[in-house]
Amino acid sequence: MEKEIFEQGLNLNRRKFLSKLSLGVGSAALGSLLIPDLFKGGSPDEEAIMSALPHFAPKAKRVIYLFQNGAPSQLESFDYKPLLNKNIGQELPDSIRGGQRLTGMTAGQTSFPLVGSYFKFNQYGESRAWISEIFPHTAGVVDDICIIKSMHTEAINHDPALTFFQTGAQVGNRPSMGSWLSYGLGSENSNLPAFCVLLSRGKGNGQGVYSKLWSNGFLEATHQGVQFSNSEDPVLYLKDPKSMSRDERRKMLDQISAMNDLSYKEFNDPEISAKIQQYEMAYRMQTAVPEMTDVSKEPDSIIKMYGPDCLIPGTYAANCLLARKLSESGVRFVQLYHQGWDQHGNLPSEMALQAKDVDQASAALITDLKQRGMLDETLVIWGGEFGRTNYCQGKILEDNYGRDHHPRAFSIWMAGGGVKSGMVYGETDEFGYNISENPVHVHDFQATVMNLMGIDHERMTYKHLGRRYRLTDVSGHVIKDIIA
Amino acid sequence: MISLSSFRSILENTLFVWLGLALILTIGGDNLFLPEWLQVIGRSHPLILHFPIVLLLFGLLFFWIPNLNTKKDLKEFGELSFLLGCNFAGITVLAGLILAQENYEGAALDWHKWAGLAVFGLSTLLYFFRNQSIRFSKSLSAIIAVGVLLAGHWGADLTHGENFLLAPILKEEQETLALNEAEVFRDVVQPILQAKCISCHKEGKIKGELRMDQIDHIKKGGKSGPFVVPGDFDNSLLVTRINLPMEEKEHMPPKNKIQLTDEEKTILMDWVYSGASFDQKLEEIDSQTDLFQLASQKFTTTENYDFNSADPETISELNNFFREVAPVYPGSPALVVSYFGISAFDPSSLDELKAIGEQVVQLNLNKMPLEGVSFGFLSNFPNLRELQANFTNLTSDEISEISKLENLTSLAISGNTIDEKSLESLSKMKSLEKLFLWQTGLSDPQKDLLRNQLPDTKIEFGFDGRGVIYDLNSPTIISEINMFADSTKLEITHPIKTVEIRYTTDGEEPDSTSSSIYNEPIWINKTAEVKARAFAKDWKGSPSSSVLLFRSGNPPKELKLLTQPNPNYFGKGELTLIDQIKGKNNHTSGEWLGFQDEDPEVEITLADGQRPKELTLSLLYHEGAYIFPPTQVEVWISNNGNWEKIVDEVPAQSKDIKPSRFEALNYDMPNKEFNKVKIKMKTIKSLPKWHPGAGSKGWVFIDEISFLD
């Protein structure tokens, strides 16, 4: 506090000093050398980049990303490997492992016995894709989705891998994919945030999700993901107190905004203008959110389709339904996380429960978007941060086994939004350990999502601390083969 | 030390040497054989060329100084600079001519060469006739200056590529062609030939007697053979030449020219492979081929519209909090209009869109209350392609207005009731490619009828849930407290309000016929396991949910711990077991006593006159946290020191890992006089084989011991 009083007395603080310093041409040049961000936002190339967005006609207008947090096993879902059942208990050949590093959890293990899925697989749809019996509803929409069996990543532990998927870097502090899209494309509906986050937790062994995953990083604060609460009121503190009328609220906001405006003029701090905008949006959200989240008008068939859990706030099914409603209301990027997919042990029982949590609602989301004519313009993504090993962690029992983390090959699926439907892309070797064709790196995946949204991932950059950043860092190729 | 005048005369003489050599090189041209060391001189051309540019331009300036003849020193200085410039021009020209032998060719080279020679020649001329008329020297100097600039420009084109200098300001507006209009040769192959081949294979410069500037000539081929043979790589010189190693003389394009990219090579080869057709449409090719994949990216799949853009100011005026107006993509004249915010919807705002009526191709009115809105405004949108109006309470009159939209290709009106009249209107919409009619109340025969009438339209009727039977989810049992003195209120809810909830209080599984139906909150007045299930038509009955409620009864006088719990799970010590507070479903809550190394043993002194009929031990089971049922429970009673064992049993043991849960062990007390009770339990000493911690010691957790009268 003393510091603030002192600064006020001097009518000078660092920001003010710098803004005065920058009045002179020479000192401005000096300032820009010392503090590259001093003229942030005004750099002509950035403006040119932004004004050209999207870079071409977008195929998808919105994204719903169903993140399966904890890494669901590809070998019990979409990557059918009968050899593992045949060779159960046999050692993973060194030639296949190829020096792959291990996590701390199996580093001490002397044996790596192969284990195949205890769940049965069947082929479905026109694509004849193999899908395990614990995903019967997903199997029902197989001709609307594109399964990618050849994803690979660089990280081997949850947090870095998750952060890598979401922000393009394994360390934190970079903007999330949703923040990039919010920055690039803005919101369709100015009454709602462009980037919303919904969390749910399954019964399986879980891993944390942290707000850094939906952080705006170095982008302006308005691009941060807005986390919805798991309660009856998805956005907390939105209602006015009982004694306050809407007119009074308006008057109050006008006053606050006038004061904020004054200090913005004085300090030019972009955080202040972000704050003003957030107040205004919150005011509009007071009517927009209840309208949007109201499930009472949903027809009975919707409840049946998503499963009755969709009426219980905070469940995955409820979040899927909410995601559809948000998307329908023009929210650019809806990010779901469902925890509980980390099956180091008890895989058969836990994975069946996890699948039961998500299978029906994920498939319902596809069908629901489709029957409203929205699937063509909405990209739905389902998948975790990496895959799981083809060998058992711990002992193989008659009804129990576990799998460790595996970054070299795993499966995700995408649907709608300009992605080819009824397609299986990429292949792994017969051990399900290495990719044998069409590898898709996390940056390739990100580049493809951006491409579908009409953005050239190499051209949308943001200059921060003297270098230009992009979601895909310095690599990434658009997987053209899966684009319709 | 040579004097300035002799230095000058040497430079004047060398000018003629350069002139002579330049003449030989120019006339001799390709027929000369140049030794390798000369190549080094040739390649210094880009280095030395900077000297003549500066010196000549500097020297030329002096011709423009008024009354130069009167300023002797200045004149001398200017002349010397110009002379030096002429010499450097000569050396540069020579080096350039040598360099030109190294595989450079093309129009740019010719222009550059002759401009350079002209500059050199004219400069020499000007030097020797500098004292003729002022008019002559001035005009010639101006011509030379222009010549220097032009030669420099063409030279830059040679090294940096065509129009290097002006490229940034000469941005070509390239029209993107629609995919369905693109032709393989005209729009994909020819542009590559144009960019990478044609500079040497065209009229006036027909290398290898091959011309690519006309289709007839391409078909004919060149001196060495046919350019393309459909489907035949070996005999198509196009294919063989571009695939030769870089070092080969025949490799095309020549090594110092801009090379083909891998993508371009693939396109050219796939074109030959697919038949080298000159009039095939791109869409006619198999979409799985590389050719199609690579080529199709160059064209837009979005429609090209023939109307003009709307006024940007009008567009921004129409944007507000309840309506977004935006182009389909930047630069497109076509607009998308979306409405958001049901309560903010104002039907009259639809008429405001008239100003951009021609440009609107997509209109999104989902969920807006459109009932009774006059749909005449739709006639403002002659180019509307896509209309979304799901859940908008459309009337048949409104649908009949919609059916008049001739260019509509996609219509989403799910969630609106479609009556016979609307059905008739819809069946006339032959232009529709996609029609979304989920939740519209149409019968199966009506759906079939529509399918027959619109055979080319993809109609989506969606999921109606009929005949699909899924599990209901369990009801939620809400109790204020788990441990009560006399009675407690219990509520049971289910997210679907219309289900029937049935419950039992005796631990039995509820069924859909005989169990009690839940209508209002129920009161429980004894320790009981309440179970509830939900039932509804078209659903399978839910799994049961259950809750264990404890009646605490009356507290005893005193409780003594004969063995001590683990210090980490000590709760409030002895008081924990008789404080009549039910612990939370979490063994670390501080409301539990946890025993591992020692077997729990407690001694209880009853209150005066207390004659309990029942004893309840409140336990926590959680196999995942190594918390198991006790392997043995003994209950002893005593009346003034005579201990008698009344219970010795093995409670039901765990068979697998389940979530953390409450359990109550109930024992009847004998109808006898007694004032003390002793309870002994045994913890599990070796966890069973199925447990991950098989062989380790397990725990017993207990939070309450209660006596019911």
Strand order of the largest sheet of chain B: 3-4-5-6-7-8-9
Could you tell me the mean pLDDT of chain B?
87
Largest sheet of chain B: 7 strands, mixed
- CATH topology (fold) name of the largest domain in chain A: Alkaline Phosphatase, subunit A
Q: Largest sheet of chain A, if any?
A: 9 strands, mixed
Structural class of chain A: alpha/beta
Tally of separate domains of chain A: 2
Head-to-tail CA distance between termini of chain A? 59 Å
Helix content of chain B: 25-40%
List keywords for this structure.
heterodimer; A: 484 residues; alpha/beta; Alkaline Phosphatase, subunit A; 9-stranded mixed sheet; two-stranded antiparallel ribbon; 15 helices; B: 709 residues; Leucine-rich repeat, LRR (right-handed beta-alpha superhelix); 7-stranded mixed sheet; 5-stranded mixed sheet; 16 helices; 28% helix
Overview of the molecule:
The complex is a heterodimer of chains A (484) and B (709). In chain A, the strands form 5 sheets. In chain A, strands 1, 4, 5, 6, 7, 8, 11, 12 and 15 form a 9-stranded mixed sheet that branches. In chain A, strands 2-3 form a two-stranded antiparallel sheet. Chain A starts with a helix and ends in a 15-residue tail after the last strand. In chain A, a hairpin with a 6-residue loop joins β13 and β14 (435-437). Chain A has 2 domains: 1-39, no CATH class; 46-235 and 289-482, Alkaline Phosphatase, subunit A (3-Layer(aba) Sandwich). Chain A is built from 15 helices and 17 strands. By secondary structure, chain A is an alpha/beta fold. Chain A has helices at 2-10, 14-21, 25-34, 44-51, 82-86, 94-97, 136-140, 158-167, 177-185, 246-267, 270-293, 300-306, 316-328, 347-371, 442-452; strands at residues 62-68, 121-124, 129-132, 145-152, 195-201, 226-227, 333-339, 378-383, 387-392, 403-406, 410-415, 423-425, 427-428, 435-437, 440-441, 462-464, 467-469. In chain A, α10 (246-267) packs antiparallel against α11 (270-293). With 709 residues, chain B is of the alpha/beta class. Chain B has 5 domains: 4-160; 181-296, no CATH class; 312-460, Ribonuclease Inhibitor (Leucine-rich repeat, LRR (right-handed beta-alpha superhelix)); 470-550, Immunoglobulins (Immunoglobulin-like), CATH 2.60.40.10; 555-708, Jelly Rolls (Sandwich). Chain B is 28% helix and 19% strand. Chain B is built from 16 helices and 28 strands. In chain B, the strands form 7 sheets. In chain B, strands 3-4-5-6-7-8-9 form a 7-stranded mixed sheet. Chain B has a 5-stranded mixed sheet with strand order 12-19-17-14-15, with no helix packed on it. In chain B, α4 runs antiparallel to α7 (134-160), α8 (184-196) crosses α11 and α14 packs parallel to α15 (420-426). Chain B is elongated. Chain B starts with a helix and ends with a strand. The chains are: A alpha/beta (484), B alpha/beta (709).
